[in-house]
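Q: Convert this sequence to structure tokens.
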Amino acid sequence: MRPSDITIHEKIHTSMAHLSPSEQRLAKVLLASYPSAGLKSVAELAARAQVSGATVVRFVRHLGFDGFPAFQHSLHEEVQQRAASPLQMYESHQGDTGERAPHAALPLLEKGLRQTFERTSAEEISQVVALLTDPSRRILCTGGRFSDILAQYLRNHLHQLRERVEYVAPGEGRADLLLDIGKRDVVVMFDCRRYQPDTVRFARGCRQRGATVVLITDPWLSPVAEVSKHILMCDVEGLSLYDSFVPTMALLEWLVAEIVRTLGDTARARIEKLEQTRHEQMIFRTQPVARPD
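A:
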């Protein structure tokens, strides 16, 4: 299964409006504990969702699978993709002698951008923007070993546009911040495969304290999804053994553009104050320091 393929999570999510009440109950159980719930037996899954075994089989057929074994086989493949490491990706790239000229790379990048924007609704973006532009809320941005750079990128933009925005570095030190996490906090988390246990624990701790979690992840979904209010999924298929952040960066550009548009004059006024502050500091640094006589 390639990263650009539609995941079972997406299939379930997009089919919700066409399901019977019992199938919707089953779908919610699967989405709430994805993908682990789907790896249970038919009987266990049916009992958890309080539906019949026949409903489970009917549901997976509705998703396009020949039966429950085919459904679980596909889900197992997703789990393997979720855990793929650079070493495993390296092995899969061996023997790849395809052309890597710019004009050959462009279609792959375009595909990732298209897939990402097609699976992201304007309504979801609007809801996230509403959170990130609410002046009564504190915004915290954090990520993992590689995705941390995305958290810094978003924080740097938000800091220019509004107050009370913080960057939270990955690592054990995040645990201390849970002391001050509250219901008016919004935690924007970047987490892509391989998902880091400390990032997942921090997200769960934030949610337990009432914070709203916004997750930006890959198509296989970080476990952080279980405690997230909003989830934005980005394709990660890259040109090498490493996942690509090109679609994620493009999504952030869209998000920032909507934030600027929503804040309007408020953002302009803050940028003006920021420029003035920088100007003053530059003058201060370039002026000779007066020495006492």
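DSSP finds 13 helices and five strands in the chain.
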